[in-house]
Amino acid sequence: MLPALYVPEARQWLSTSTGRIAPEGYSWMQAVHWVAESGLYEPRRYRSHGPRGFGVTTVRVAQELAEMFPCRPGIEYLVRRTGLSERSVEYHLGMLRETGLLAYIVKGTRVSGETAQASEFARMIPEAFDVALGIRTVLRDEDAPAYMRAMTGIAEAGRELMAKLAKKAARKVRKPRAKSPSRSPVKGSRKAAEHGVVTAVSDEVRCTPMQVGPSSVSTAGATFSPPESKLASGGSKSSTPKKSKAKARGGRKLNRVGRRHQLARELTQELGWLRGCSVPRIAWVARGVADAGWTVTDVKGWLHLRGEAARVRRGSGLLAVLLAGAETILDTPEKRAAAVEQWRGAQEAARRHRIQQVRARTERYDGDWDAPTSRAVRRQVDEAFAASFGPKPQAAAPDTEALPEVSGVDGLEDDAVAQAREEARQRLMVGDTSLITVAVDAMGRETAEQLYGPDLVRRALQLASGARSSLMTYGRR
User: Fold this and answer.
1) Domain formed by 9-220, architecture
2) How many CB atoms lie within 10 A of CB 11?
3) For residues 465 and 325, what is the distance between their CA atoms, to the nearest angstrom?
4) Which of 68, 109, 370, 459 is the most exposed place for a label (fewest CB within 10 A)?
């Protein structure tokens, strides 16, 4: 009686494995078929999801790995060759590792924004296989690691089982064909559909390590060219499955969770204050707008209306406050499009302002005049330039005590109203909302909107309400 076959994750590496490296893919397939028939491995004992057993599909994946040297299978390659889904391929690779048939040499990497690197495996023969068949091994070099053991013999009781495994390793397990609805399947076809269609490998001679295979003749000197009818123009079908229509249209359609993670990944890449945040956490925070069909551009337009903080301590917490109730306020595509247009207009205005600043700085310092090397002299020169060419100082803010006496803006001139709105807008850009909030408290919101405009009053009240939250901080860096 052999114990249950299971290799924990810490021993799934070549340096920590108790098995030995398979000399070639054919001997490794013998061990694969032995594991499939032994019943010593039960996947559902160690996890609550995934395949229920080590069966035909796992053997098909192992056949693709047996033909690779070195064994560096990419997930997309195995999906294309076997016709399985990406998750299914990952499940079966994990089962091969947990049974000791595969061991990591190099583990692949999947870094966001970079090309994924495939893992490199070593095809291993588990120690339980050698014990069950009575295989004797020896380490020919004392300085070599234990996984370099070589086979030297086999017990008489294990020769018959080894011969059966050799026949199975010489055949290729293919994907079961779909049953025809018009004909009732016979007993043999039903059995083949349950256990997988097995087709013998033609024109190929295999041998086991102890010469118990179908033949012991080497094929090193017998190389045959395929007939012309088997070439690409001969009409034979390609072994590579055709791409599905969903992939031809741009990949699988994402479900609700996939759309949340896609939006979260784009937000962490587009917004600087979300760099380094956990994508799953951002997906959970933005689940409301993601389920409503928002794009990253729509989120940017909403954040422009909501107001962003200049100093962020915790990006996910700030995003949760800013997105609160967003899908209920901008509940139609037209409202979101208007917010996006307003955000783009602000971006264009900021770009033009930066261009003017750079142009003014260039015109200021261009010429044959050399700046002085002394810091004190340069400071005096900058002050002189600022006094001569800088913006004029703005007039002092009106006395707020006189605001209650103002009953409306009908008596004010257009120039005075424009100057008041410009001053309020400049203060609002640096986070100062006191000018508008005092006007709202003193004259009422309707009169304040007549004086400063509904847009400035709404943004000032939003910033004032957000400033009272402990998750937001307004001001300069």
Assistant:
1) Orthogonal Bundle (1.10)
2) 16
3) 14
4) 370
